[in-house]
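The data are quoted verbatim for completeness:
=====
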Amino acid sequence: MQNYEKEILNAHELDNMLTRLTFQILEKCTDFDNTKIIGIKRRGAILADRIKEKIKQFKNIDIEIGYLDITLYRDDLTEISEFPILRGTEINFDVKNKNIILVDDVIFTGRTVRAALDAIIDYGRPKKIILAVLIDRGHRELPIQPDFKGKYVPTSIDERINVKLKEIDEIDSVSISKMIK
């Protein structure tokens, strides 16, 4: 078997997409005193940092940010590993009655977002949660849709979207891959 992989976004295109996502958020969100950003670890947290910086750059608004580890909220926890790796949640603000911008890299079945919603609710009841994702690849198993998406990439169920970010992978790119027999 060999792996077929095709780049669909280079570093420049990825940055442009994050800028577009940021402007979409700025258009919809008006109460930034009551708005917080939460990134789903790992890559969603990095994208959340980048969106936060773009908001600061374009509007001179410094939004508080938190990072969410959804590992223990997953509905497939017993299937993924006997000893899952916990990356720790860092939310140092009250979510009660706040507008939360939840950020992730890819939305697929919707189960990661469902787990994130459960985790956030354990911290309190936000006024509103909006979802921003870099890539929507379809195949939802739950009725969860992003409010903002950078790009919709139709995929087959056996394909994979690979988001690489320089903070982890030393390169910014998005590719689609498939194992070919």
In short: Helices lie at 11-28, 43-59, 77-80, 111-123, 166-169.
